[in-house]
Write a structure and sequence with these properties.
The protein is mostly helical and 212 residues long. It has a domain of 145 residues. The protein is 79% helix and 0% strand. It contains eight helices and no strands. The radius of gyration is 17 Å and the shape is globular.
């Protein structure tokens, strides 16, 4: 567990702290685009840690929340939660369907946008939920009060994403709390993975370079 947090701190320093030192010298767009270059590395680190944890502890994947029991309930709960979290803010977006169609065309015509969208939709929800909720949260809630564990996990997973302003930070923090509570209530990681997937799906339809 402590090795996991040590790797997290090192990774956070190399990416976010150094980027913070450079942000005064580059534009916000350059800073954000630089962040996204680290995204595959972040997921790789998370998956390596998960693999080592499973191997060392000699546990099965269901121990981290990927269960067949209650799968239908988890998928339904995750779907409803993911849609509500992202659709409600999109009500304010003008001409939603026109922007969505234009961004879909952009994604398919731009190899980088296409690859990033695939990552955001299929790799990111699985690796992040398995790492933050399945591993870190499951360990923390056994050692400290669940409410505090939920807040810590939400904060950690929030600061690992680019924050353009205060509103986005608190919105992402709120969403991460919801994901963790969803997992806690269903006791099945497929619920938060589904919610995460749908949240990111609606995100890239409007903002091709967003999602988490």
């Amino acid at each position: 567990m402590w090795i996991t947090f040590l790797i997290f701190i090192i990774e956070f320093f190399l990416r976010d702290f150094i980027a913070f030192l450079l942000i005064s010298k580059v534009s916000k767009e350059t800073y954000v685009s630089t962040y996204y270059k680290f995204v595959p590395i972040i997921c790789l680190i998370e998956l390596i840690i998960l693999f080592l944890y499973i191997k060392i502890k000699n546990i099965c994947i269901s121990t981290l929340g990927l269960k067949k029991v209650g799968l239908r309930k988890a998928l339904i709960s995750g779907s409803v939660t993911g849609i509500i979290l992202r659709v409600l803010p999109l009500i304010r977006v003008e001409d939603f369907f026109h922007k969505a169609i234009m961004n879909i065309q952009l994604i398919f015509l731009n190899p980088i946008a296409y690859a990033f969208s695939l990552h955001v939709l299929f790799c990111s929800p699985f690796s992040e939920e398995l790492f933050f909720r399945g591993l870190l949260y499951s360990v923390l809630r056994e050692k400290i009060p669940k409410v505090l564990a939920i807040i810590i996990i939400a904060f950690i997973s929030t600061i690992l994403h680019p924050v353009r302003n205060t509103f986005i930070f608190f919105f992402q923090f709120f969403v991460n709390i919801i994901f963790t509570v969803l997992y806690e209530k269903t006791d099945n990681l497929y619920s938060s993975i589904t919610a995460h997937f749908l949240f990111n799906l609606f995100s890239i339809l409007i903002y091709p370079k967003t999602g988490f």
